[in-house]
Design a protein that fits this description.
This protein is mostly helical. Among the domains are: about 300-465; about 560-680, no CATH class; about 695-715 and about 770-990, no CATH class; about 1020-1165, Histidine kinase-like ATPase, C-terminal domain (Heat Shock Protein 90, 2-Layer Sandwich), CATH 3.30.565. The chain starts with a helix and ends in a 6-residue tail after the last strand.
Length: about 1150
């Protein structure tokens, strides 16, 4: 606010008396006086006070940048900060104009590869304009491209050792990861995310906004709100940096719908006036878009106009020659990159065939070609291009790479990105209409450009949408119609050119056409047709093209009650292709079934018959998996779910011979899970398991990449660059610095360390950069998530399969069912059925009504107790722990730091590092289990016992006759004893197992499992031809032999069935005797079956003799091929390798002519075999 002359005089006097130190002088001057008053006051002091007032806008050294902080008040006002920035820039017009010239020359030299002259330009920038953060970024980038890592190391060390401002050091270090060629875009984004986590999300939200604004150059959806703070906080960098901050933040502010339009208007009007004569193309475009005077000269942009004319005329070869000529001289004209590559493709050529003079530009062009062609290298090329954008984001030429990548990553191009692209474009392009709200203003500008593309756009705006004769005109027409929300017209236009090879004749043109047809259908709410195009493209291409998946489709399909398109099979397929949430895929499947009056996917088979479409096959194979169907109310048990999946797989086997083995493998997995559950019901052993090897096997590359980045961060010179936050007081020793102990210390001492401990004085402590610690947190977080949540290898998956999913409740409920004390619910209601057992047992049937009412209530009570116990098995990994959850995997900041400094930090190789992290997680799991076991053995058991006592009391109160009460009382007492025994057994489940499956199993379990499996594979063959299996073996077998022993029996049954297909109608007689010879320590499996009458006796004898020969040769170490008829060799391999019997086994085939029966005797040593 303006002050009186008296106020000015008082302030001047106070300054002369030394009452205001520099920062206070700056703050008071900034917020208490007008621009005119500030000028008057500063005229009374030396130039040093000008620097205090405007925070050294022309630093004399890089070490000065940010040293004299700009003050921003607690609740800054956007206009106030904006006006103060404009005031500063106004005073340095000359420097800004010089910067524009020098920077344009610099970008030209960077892309030309003339790095020596680049350094000359940077030196000139620093000397003439003041040292800037921008010049540091450019220097770092050039060193990186040249491969001069030592120069960058020296640069960072120089800043650190000479006490550059903390702010500059932190920003330079974050920039380092953006520019480093060896850091992927994913790793860079992760480092930014990690840095923001250092700040309190509420108290320091303005710092988080600043980091995202400054360093997340790709994502504009962070909903930044602290614009005044960002402007003020950047006002202690050079005037060059402040100018670039204005250009970067302005489009974000103007596109923000939450900012008052009057405020935006004041900002716009100020910029139009302030930069009325600026030669920066940004402000030329800004005036064209927002200014009232349309006397803007576009004649200097004729190069692009000529190119567009050639594209309109489909003169692609001439277009490539034109671009080559222009870009050879001006490689920084990045607006030409995409149309140049498109013209090369359209003229049936390749970028690699062109002798382009600028290597770095050619690399970008080649990546763009790969992306446009949508071939097998599409995803890799897109990722490389994103990394290239990150590396060059501080250069003007990167803007048009950004727009291209946004399009390819299928991110909705926001108004912010459209504005950034338009304002930074050296040409008024054909798609500039996207940012103009006023058509008349746009037409007035276009009329000054007598070129074909612009004239075609004018006709579109005026309502004359003419048929397109070329791709560029088609893009203009469709883009304009879409902007005006004339979706039906846009769709009609697109369909009209779909088969016009003059318009659409390359892959990028076809993919553009498909994407816009999909978009038009989606916006017209014809989601089924949109999905059809996406799914058809997938089947044609062989991989999913994310580019086609318009976000508006998926947002609409999140609604489970959206049934308009339920008949269309493409909907669930599309959702699966684009990895939508499981619940959304299930809703789509359920809606599709309901549309046909069906309940289960297998019921659709009758409609599709024996020759199903590839769509239906994919739907069954990929969409109708158990995970997507488990929420269905028609699969109340896992057994029903497995039965449904097996039906589907058997149907698929009959229609896709190439995938029979794949489908059989899945069936076998399901069968193994079935057997596993059966076995676990019998064997009350430890059931808690995490497949450590499986997690590492599937994620090894990911973890090794993260560890490599972690391991590389050892430079002690980077300590202060990464160990602090922007809001850390530079004058004090940072408490956020990280260290580890070379030799672990006692836990008691570790816990006693407080803020007075100085690790730098401890010879046992080693300092590390905070960024290294951040990577440790990332690796730990990823591993913890896989350890807990991975469905195949993690704790959650095994907990679900072995305990939670039916087993826990079934085992407990079975006890009460055994003694006829509980019933199940009616299938169509929540009401419990009667326990009919007692209707027949009671002498006085008149009493049964009251009894049944009590038992129904007791059934509900038992289920409530079980459900409550199941809630104990919830896994928590967040700070807010769910009530009752036993498995708490949340680690506090202190716990994570203690683990690092006392256990992890000193480890120097990947294997030790990852092994120790697993050990930590297993220790946490064991702690959770130790706390849970008493709850099972005591609390759960006591609840059941108390409920049984209450039941007994209620029944006693019915005054039944002595005989009836005695029957029921006996069952209750026996049940009370058994439930206590069972809960004790269940307690033992909650111990960590070393085995992926079960610790031990009886041999009967494996035979039941394989019979079940064979029935599922061979359409109930062993139900029709039920084998007679006799087992005389009382020993349980070690769990690790579960799968290989199963393979042995599968080989036996498959051999029998395949050799006797003509008598599998019930005439096949199979007998299996399994017994143990304890004296010889051998297990014998005797298998026999009758053979078909059609079998030739001599051939049978020959086959047996041949089999014996093969077995002998295999056992003697002679190579034997696994050719047709080699079933016995598979048995030998199974015994010697899989069951680890080595040479301690024998396989003896035989044939009895009298009985017409084939037999085989398998025997092997049982050392280390039984549990």
């Amino acid at each position: 606010m303006a002050k009186s002359k008296t106020d000015r005089k008082i302030f001047i006097d106070d300054v002369r008396k030394g009452k205001h130190e520099p920062l206070a002088f700056h703050a008071f001057l900034k917020y208490n006086f007008s621009e005119k008053d500030r000028a008057f006051i500063l005229s009374k002091f030396s130039g040093l006070y000008y620097n205090y007032a405007y925070s050294f806008p022309k630093p004399s050294s890089h070490l000065i940048i940010g040293k004299h902080s700009s003050f921003t008040k607690e609740n800054p006002d956007l206009l106030e900060e904006f006006y103060f920035l404009i005031e500063t820039l106004r005073q340095h017009r000359g420097e800004i104009n010089n910067f524009l010239k020098l920077n344009a020359e610099l970008e030209h030299l960077v892309l030309s590869g003339d790095f020596e002259r680049c350094f000359e330009i940077l030196d000139k920038m620093d000397a003439v304009l003041g040292h800037s953060f921008h010049s540091l970024l450019c220097e770092y980038y050039i060193n990186e491209i040249r491969g001069d890592n030592q120069a960058n190391h020296k640069l960072l060390s120089y800043l650190n050792s000479n006490q550059a401002s903390m702010k500059l050091l932190i920003l330079m270090n974050l920039t380092r990861y953006r520019i480093d060629q060896n850091v992927s875009s994913l790793q860079y984004e992760g480092s930014i995310e990690q840095h923001t986590r250092l700040y309190d999300p509420i108290a320091s939200a303005h710092y988080i906004d600043y980091i995202f604004f400054k360093f997340d150059n790709f994502n504009f959806d962070h909903q930044i709100k602290n614009y005044p703070f960002i402007i003020g906080f950047d006002s202690d960098f050079s005037v060059v940096d402040r100018y670039q901050t204005l250009k970067r933040i302005l489009p974000i502010i103007l596109a923000d719908v939450t900012i008052d339009e009057e405020i935006k208007l004041k900002i716009v009007d100020t910029c139009v006036v302030q930069f009325a004569n600026s030669k920066d193309i940004f402000w030329t475009n800004f005036r064209a878009l927002y200014g009232k005077n349309q006397n803007i000269d576009f004649t200097d942009r004729s190069n692009f106009r000529d190119l567009q004319d050639k594209l309109v005329e489909r003169k692609y070869k001439e277009a490539t020659e034109h671009c080559f000529s222009v870009l050879s001289k001006h490689p920084e004209y990045s607006e030409l990159y995409v149309p140049y590559v498109q013209a090369i493709i359209a003229s049936n050529n390749h970028v690699s065939n062109i002798e382009f003079p600028h290597y770095h530009v050619k690399e970008i062009l080649e990546l763009m070609e790969e992306v446009l062609q949508k071939g097998p290298n599409y995803l890799a090329a897109r990722e490389k291009l994103l990394k290239r954008f990150f590396m060059t984001a501080h250069f003007e030429f990167s803007t048009h790479i950004l727009e291209f990548i946004y399009n390819e990553y299928n991110i909705a191009i926001s108004q912010t990105v459209q504005l950034i692209s338009f304002l930074n474009s050296a040409v008024l392009r054909y798609n500039s209409f996207k940012v103009f709200k006023n058509d008349e203003k746009l037409i007035a500008l276009l009329q000054k450009i007598p070129h074909r593309a612009e004239q075609y756009l004018i006709r579109c705006i005026e309502g004359y949408i003419q048929p397109a004769s070329n791709y560029l005109s088609a893009k203009i027409a469709v883009g304009y119609l879409m902007k005006k929300k004339r979706y039906s017209e846009a769709l009609e236009f697109l369909l009209s050119i779909a088969t016009n090879t003059s318009v659409i004749h390359t892959e990028y043109m076809r993919s553009w056409l498909k994407r816009n047809i999909v978009k038009a259908y989606a916006l017209l709410n014809e989601l089924g047709k949109a999905a059809d195009i996406i799914v058809e493209d997938f089947f044609e291409r062989g991989f999913v093209l994310e580019y086609l998946g318009v976000p508006s489709i998926f947002s609409r399909l999140q609604d489970p009650f959206e049934t308009t398109f339920s008949h269309n099979l493409s909907i669930p397929i599309m959702l699966e292709l684009y990895r939508q949430p499981q619940s959304v895929i299930y809703d789509a499947i359920a809606n599709h079934l309901v549309a046909f009056g069906l309940f289960k996917p297998s019921e659709l088979i009758a409609q599709h018959g024996e020759n199903p479409s590839k769509y239906f096959q994919y739907f069954l194979e990929k969409c109708c998996v158990m995970e997507n169907l488990e929420d269905s109310p028609f699969f109340k048990t896992i057994e029903l779910l497995e039965e449904e999946r097996i039906k589907i797989l058997n149907y698929l086997k009959g229609n896709n011979s190439e995938k029979v083995e794949l489908y059989n493998k899945e069936i076998r997995t399901i069968a193994q899970n079935v057997s596993l559950r059966k076995g676990l019901l019998q064997i009350h052993e430890s059931r808690i398991y995490v497949d450590e090897a499986g997690i590492l096997r599937t994620r090894l590359t990911h973890f090794k990449e993260l560890y490599a980045a972690y391991d590389s961060l050892n430079d002690i010179n980077q300590l202060h660059l990464t160990g602090l936050k922007l809001n850390t007081d530079q004058s004090i020793t940072p408490i956020d610095s990280v260290y580890f102990f070379k030799t672990p210390i006692e836990i008691e001492r570790l816990n006693s360390l407080d803020e007075t401990y100085d690790h730098e004085l401890d010879e046992n402590a080693v300092s590390v950069p905070l960024i290294k610690y951040s990577y440790y947190l990332s690796i730990f977080g990823f591993l913890r998530d896989f350890f807990i949540k991975d469905e195949d290898y993690g704790f959650k998956g095994f907990l679900s399969m072995r305990i939670r999913h039916g087993t826990f409740s079934n085992v407990l409920r079975t006890v009460f069912e055994k003694y006829h004390l509980v019933s199940s619910k009616e299938s169509n209601s929540n009401q419990y059925q009667e326990v009919r057992y007692w209707n027949d047992k009671l002498e006085n049937t008149l009493d049964s009504g009251d009894l049944q009412s009590i038992l129904k209530s007791f059934s509900s009570n038992v289920d409530i107790i079980i459900e409550d116990a199941l809630s104990w098995l919830v896994i928590n990994d967040s700070e807010v722990k769910p009530e009752n959850a036993s498995f708490d995997f949340f680690f506090s900041d202190k716990e994570l730091f203690d683990l690092y400094r006392n256990r992890i930090g000193r480890l120097t190789n990947f294997d030790d590092f990852i092994s120790e992290l697993f050990k930590i997680l297993f220790e946490r799991l064991e702690n959770c289990l130790s706390a849970l076991r008493p709850r099972i053995a005591q609390i759960l058991s006591d609840k059941f016992v108390a409920s049984l006592h209450a039941l007994d009391k209620q029944i006693e109160s019915l005054n039944l006759n002595k005989g009836d009460y005695g029957l029921i009382n006996h069952e209750i007492l026996t049940c009370t004893t058994e439930i206590q025994v069972v809960t004790t057994k269940i307690e033992n489940w909650f111990r960590i197992s070393k085995n992926k499956y079960i610790e031990r199993f009886p041999i009967s379990l494996i035979t039941e499992t394989i019979v079940n499996y064979i029935n599922q594979i061979y359409a109930d063959a062993l139900i029709v031809n039920k084998p007679n299996i006799e087992i005389k073996c009382n020993n349980d077998i070690k769990g690790r032999y579960f799968e290989p022993l199963g393979d042995l029996f599968i080989n036996i049954f498959e051999n029998i069935l395949s050799k006797n297909k003509d008598i599998t109608d019930g005439r096949l007689n199979i007998g299996i005797d399994i017994y143990e010879d304890e004296l010889k320590e051998r297990l014998i499996i005797q298998v026999g079956n009758n053979v078909s009458e059609q079998k030739d006796e001599k051939q049978m004898q020959h086959d047996v003799s041949d089999a014996k020969g093969k077995i002998s040769r295999y056992q003697n170490g002679t190579d034997v091929a696994f050719e047709k008829g080699s079933g016995f060799i598979k048995l030998c391999k199974n015994l010697s390798v899989d069951l680890d019997r080595k040479e301690e086994y024998n396989v003896l085939p035989d044939y009895s002519e009298d009985k017409r029966r084939f037999e085989v005797k398998i025997e092997f040593k049982t050392n280390n075999f039984f549990a």
